[in-house]
């Protein structure tokens, strides 16, 4: 990963162009600019200062880790949250999920709380252990705490949740809290933006 001072210099030299980073979001960070009721750090505290305001393309809740796009391009935010881009998650779930529970997740779930139904989605069972099940879930929607709510509705819960992929963007060797720049060509190739 390039040194932070070099990245800050790069940002100021390129201040007229939008910037986008892929961040490996760590556990216990917020996807908001500030929360006066919490001492939890935000994802923006992990990014270098920028002449333009940073935004996340969608959100991950405080406990969810993994791939998060951070950008100064508000049009990319709109595109990425419109349902145009698939997002893949690896969920470690409580208990051994039955085929019926997995089918319910695939078909769509009433999320309650005024959020309506989750769309039908791709759900693959990666592993069934004695006490938990590991799923890969692919969504285009981005409703509040959607996967956690879906699993709750089928009688399970989340032990660990990580976003592993956004379109064709993968974390690769990025450690938690690290980020890398994503250029216009890569955005076009991996998520169809541009």
From TrEMBL:
Keyword Signal: yes
Keyword presence, Signal: yes
Keywords for this protein: Isomerase, Signal
Domain annotation Pseudouridine synthase RsuA/RluA-like: ranges: 21-152
Gene Ontology terms for molecular function: pseudouridine synthase activity; RNA binding
Pfam families, per database record: PseudoU_synth_2
Signal peptide from the UniProt entry: 1-18
Gene Ontology biological process: pseudouridine synthesis
InterPro entries in UniProt: PsdUridine_s_RsuA/RluB/E/F_cat, PsdUridine_synth_cat_dom_sf, PsdUridine_synth_RsuA/RluA, PsdUridine_synth_RsuA/RluB/E/F, RsuA_PseudoU_synthase, TruA/RsuA/RluB/E/F_N
Designated name of the protein: Pseudouridine synthase RsuA/RluA-like domain-containing protein
């Amino acid at each position: 990963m390039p040194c932070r001072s070099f990245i800050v210099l790069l940002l100021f030299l390129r201040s007229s162009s939008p910037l986008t980073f892929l961040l490996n979001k760590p556990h216990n960070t917020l996807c908001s600019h500030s929360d006066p009721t919490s001492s939890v750090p935000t994802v923006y505290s992990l990014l270098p200062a920028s002449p333009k305001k940073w935004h996340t393309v969608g959100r991950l809740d405080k406990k969810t880790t993994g791939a998060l796009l951070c950008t100064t391009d508000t049009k990319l935010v709109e595109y990425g949250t419109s349902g145009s881009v698939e997002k893949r998650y690896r969920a470690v779930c409580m208990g051994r999920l039955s085929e019926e529970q997995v089918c319910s997740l695939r078909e769509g779930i009433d999320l309650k709380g005024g959020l309506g139904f989750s769309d039908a989605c791709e759900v693959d069972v990666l592993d069934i252990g004695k006490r938990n099940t590991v799923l890969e879930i692919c969504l285009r929607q981005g409703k509040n705490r959607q996967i956690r709510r879906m699993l709750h509705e089928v009688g399970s819960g989340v032990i660990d949740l990580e976003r592993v992929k956004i379109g064709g963007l993968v974390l690769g060797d990025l450690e938690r809290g690290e980020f890398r720049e994503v250029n216009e060509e890569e955005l076009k190739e991996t998520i169809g933006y541009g």
